[in-house]
Each structure stands twice: as structure tokens, then as C-alpha cells.
Amino acid sequence: MNDPQITTSAESGAGARPLPGKALAAALREGTRAAVEAAREAGRAPKLAIVTATDDESSAWYVRSLVSAAEKSGLLHEVVHLGPKASTEEVRDALRRLGEDTSVHGVILQTPLPAGVDARALAEAVPTAKDVDGANPLSLGRLTAGLAAFAPATAEAVITLLDHYEVPLRGARAVVVGRSTVVGKPLAQLLLARDATVTVCHSRTRDLPEVTREADILVAAAGQPGLLTAEHVRPGAIVIDVGTNPTPECGLTGDVDPGAARLAGALTPVPGGVGPVTTAVLLAHVVRAAQGAGIGVGLRG
């Protein structure tokens, strides 16, 4: 990579330079707060609605953190708790109501969903104009085509974090480990739009370390604790850990083994890396939707 501040730490044997996201997230939230105040003065108070149908504690923790961040930013919010036994129709009815509610500008369908519900049909029921977390397949399709759309917030948070630390993307070799529609696939599209050369790996990838060691930018988004170790990392590579796996001690751990820091040029911490930026990006999407900015922003490049 071209940034000496990033490569020097690994080359000197000092270990990976940390890439925390908390300060960036705070700056983004401050911008959101100012935009919310302006919107309120214009008579259009941005509002986020979150639909949940689970008793999963990690999901509940995320919703609480999102609500807290919304309150600090001045965003109105509504949480619709349907319970872990909710049917497909009950969830769809809630999404339909929120889609028709003109006071609501952003809608999130929180996962996991109850066993037996039609998850694909429910994703399609999220109104595209309010799909601030890019869950509807139409949003993902527009993103792939380079058209205006809200990208999933975690995927966009990775790009935002890389830009903040001035990591060059044009021409870089980027490897994304994980192919979910929440992170892996949309992130690959965002990286391609910035002229990176992208490889997406998954559970069927042969000789994963051989592939990942080619990366200038390595993104771990598989949801498997400690999946990527030092053998997966090229010396000096930028490693972005998207994993948020619960630990027995009620903490969080990433997809990257701590030993990888010996070789990486830079590494995001878990927690405190991509996570807070994701929340800040999501809130910014709600404001953008309230401002009537169509269905988001188009891809650059």
C-alpha cells in the first residue's frame, strides 16, 4: 500500500496499527445531529422504525444500542416488538403499516427472524424508499447495477472507515471472506465501484490462506470467531474485522485471531472498529431518506 503510516508499523515489527472507529462514528453522528436539527426546523423530523421478531439477546443488544444512538442524534424512533412466534403475515403487516406511515422515513427488519417465516418475502416487503439498511433485494440489485440505493450499513461502514484512514482503494487487491447479502456481496460491489480488484471467499474456497495472502485489503465477514489467523495475512495488509461474535463472558470477539496482528499493517478492533461506524452510517441514511434524497446515493466510480 502507498500509505507509509499504515505499512511502517508492520515493517518495524511493532505489530498492526489499530484502526478504531469510535472517533469517526462520533464525527458522523455530529453531522447527523446537525442535519436532524435542520430537518426539524423545516418541519420534517426524521424517524427510524425497527421491527423485531426475536428474543435473541445479541439482537436485542444491537437494537438498544441503535435506539441509544438515535436518541443522542435527535432522531425519532419506534421499535415494533412482535415476539419470536410472529408469523410471516404479522411481520409483513407491520412492514406494510410502516411503509404507509408518512412520519416514518427509515425501516429496519431486524434479524434473526422466527423459524418458519418466509425471510425472502419479508425482505421484499421492506419499502425500498425507506430501506435504510439495504435489505430489500431491489436495493441490492440497484447497488450491483451502480444505481442509487442505500447500501447495507455495515458494508458502507467498511468503505467509510477505509476512506477515513486514507487507505487507497483504486487498484488495490481486496479479499472479502464471507458472501452474505448483509456484508460480503454488497461490500464487494462497493469496492469494485472504487476500482479495487475484488475476490470473494466462502466456505467452499480452496486453500483459503493462499487466496487471502494476496490481499492488500483483507475483510473478515464470515461470522466465525478466529477464522483468519496469521497464516492468512500478507505482511503489511490492511485487515478489517467485521465479526461480532458473542463470548461466554458476554463480550464480543471478531473473525480475526489476535495473532494476525503480528503481520498486519493495520487492524480494526472488535469491539470499537466497524461496529460504531455501522450505527452512525445507518442513522445518516435515515436523515437522507427524510430529506427526500430518493433511495440513497449511487455508487462512485
CATH class descriptor name of the largest domain: Alpha Beta
Mean pLDDT: 92
Instruction: Please tally the helical runs, counting DSSP H or I stretches of 4 or more residues.
Output: 10
For this structure, the CATH topology of the largest domain is: Rossmann fold
Number of domains: 2
> In terms of per-residue confidence, which ranges show pLDDT below 50 for 5 or more consecutive residues?
1-13, 296-301
Distance, first to last CA: 20 Å
Order of helices and strands: HEHEHEHEHHHEHEHEEEEEH
* Rg, alpha carbons: 19 Å
The oligomerization state is single chain
In total, the number of strands is 11
| Main beta sheet strand tally, sense and closure | 6 strands, parallel
Structural class: alpha/beta
The general outline is globular
State the fourth-level CATH superfamily of the largest domain: NAD(P)-binding Rossmann-like Domain
**How much helix, percentage-wise, in residues?**
25-40%
Assigned CATH architecture of the largest domain: 3-Layer(aba) Sandwich
Strand order of the largest sheet: 1-11-8-7-5-6
Query: In what range is the share of β-strand residues?
Result: 5-15%
Question: What report would you give on this structure?
Answer:
This protein folds into two domains: 4-19 and 165-274, NAD(P)-binding Rossmann-like Domain (Rossmann fold, 3-Layer(aba) Sandwich); 39-128, Leucine Dehydrogenase, chain A, domain 1 (Rossmann fold, 3-Layer(aba) Sandwich), CATH 3.40.50.10860. By secondary structure, it is of the alpha/beta class. Strands 1-11-8-7-5-6 form a six-stranded parallel beta sheet. It has a three-stranded parallel beta sheet with strand order 3-2-4, sandwiched between helices. It is globular and about 50 Å long. The chain has helices spanning 4-11, 22-41, 57-73, 88-100, 119-125, 137-144, 153-164, 184-193, 208-212, 274-290; strands at 17-18, 47-52, 76-81, 106-109, 173-177, 197-201, 217-220, 238-241, 245-246, 252-253, 266-267. 39% of the residues lie in helices and 14% in strands. Helix 7 packs across helix 10 (274-290). The longest helix is centred in the first third of the chain and has 20 residues, at 22-41.
